[in-house]
Design a protein that fits this description.
The chain has about 325 residues and is an alpha/beta fold. About 40% of the residues lie in helices and about 20% in strands. The protein is built from eleven helices and nine strands. α1 links the parallel β1 and β2.
Length: about 325
């Protein structure tokens, strides 16, 4: 058995005291990890509940063979928490699990094995199934992937850079070397915080890693269950959520685009957004008040269309220039 840490499980949490115990129990009972050393780190992203106390209680009886560590990150936002996890990790591989993700008993061993088999993989995502508290709305499968529900078959899948499709951060494993070599110290998107629903910070990071030449994969052998509470299926949550995704899209759409053709590319995206809005309104114009899925899709289209204007107006694009 190697004496060096090979794998870090990073749990980035905000006020997750009620959710953390189940996640930690799932990690405590992982199987197939006897031949490599691993650790668990909890990044407490400025919580105001008993998150720290929960971790302290678990640390008292946690196995020394895979340490449980705790760090408090004061800068609010998922991107700051993940960056802190990369900095504090003692391993080459960092696997991100949210506090509402329940990993299968072999999740760590499946992730480690995949990394050994695919040395060019800079990151790879899990197969994520939904555990809904209540029955989702009709046709919800059309928008479920935006809630980190990722079921893309039973075989590994290499993401094609041209298709602009990437895995979510939930259940994502990143090669630390790929992150440090590819991701800028300051990214534009920082994650949802109070008063700001801009999201897709995970896709910005992955876009930089992919741009640098690393492979991004989907690994169905790594299985997670994502807990979806009833309030995440309500219109009051979903519409702002999709607005945030759409308004962030200029960033992920233009990573890797050469400055000389950026305006042309954005014009093409905006033209396509307008086309999709037109046909969506034709199809669903009489159902938008009652069909939450169609309303979310329309919100995403409109917000994607106005993403460049919103980011420029609010000063986000100056960060990229700097």
């Amino acid at each position: 058995m190697t004496t060096l840490t090979s794998f870090t499980v990073a749990i980035c949490t905000y006020n997750g005291a009620n959710r953390l115990p189940e996640v930690l129990e799932r990690l405590r009972t992982q199987v197939g990890t006897e031949n490599f050393r691993w650790e668990v780190i909890v990044i407490d992203n400025n919580s105001t509940d008993n998150t720290a106390k929960i971790v302290q209680e678990y640390q008292k009886n946690w196995s020394a063979t895979h340490p449980l560590l705790y760090y408090f990150e004061t800068q609010q936002g998922a991107s700051f928490a993940r960056k802190r996890a990369i900095r504090e990790s003692h391993a080459e591989l960092v696997g991100f699990i949210d506090d509402d993700n329940f990993p299968a008993s072999n999740w760590i061993s499946a992730a480690y094995a995949f990394a050994q088999k695919h040395p060019k993989a800079g990151a790879f995502g899990s197969q994520i199934s939904a555990d809904y508290e209540v029955q989702p709305p009709e046709s919800f499968e059309r928008i479920a992937p935006f809630l980190a529900i990722t079921e893309r078959g039973s075989q590994p899948l290499l993401y094609n850079p041209r298709k602009k499709l990437l895995p979510p951060s939930a259940g994502l494993v990143v090669r630390k070397k790929a992150w440090l070599e590819s991701v800028p110290n300051i990214c534009i998107l920082t994650g949802r915080v109070t008063g700001n629903m801009l999201t897709s910070e995970d896709l910005e990071v992955l876009s930089y890693i992919q741009k640098a030449g690393w492979e991004i994969w989907y690994n169905p052998a790594m299985q997670l269950s994502h807990q979806i509470p009833s309030w995440r299926l309500q219109k009051d949550y979903l519409i702002p959520f999709f607005r945030g995704i759409g308004l962030s899209r200029y960033v992920t759409r233009t990573v890797g685009v050469k400055p000389g053709i950026k305006n042309l590319v954005i014009f093409a995206y905006m033209s396509n957004d307008l086309r999709k809005i037109f046909f969506h309104l034709l199809k669903y114009r009489h159902k938008l008040r009652t069909d939450i899925v169609a309303a979310c899709e329309l919100q995403l289209m409109f917000s994607s269309l106005f993403s460049p204007i919103h980011l420029w107006k609010n000063g986000y694009l100056k960060m990229r220039e700097q």
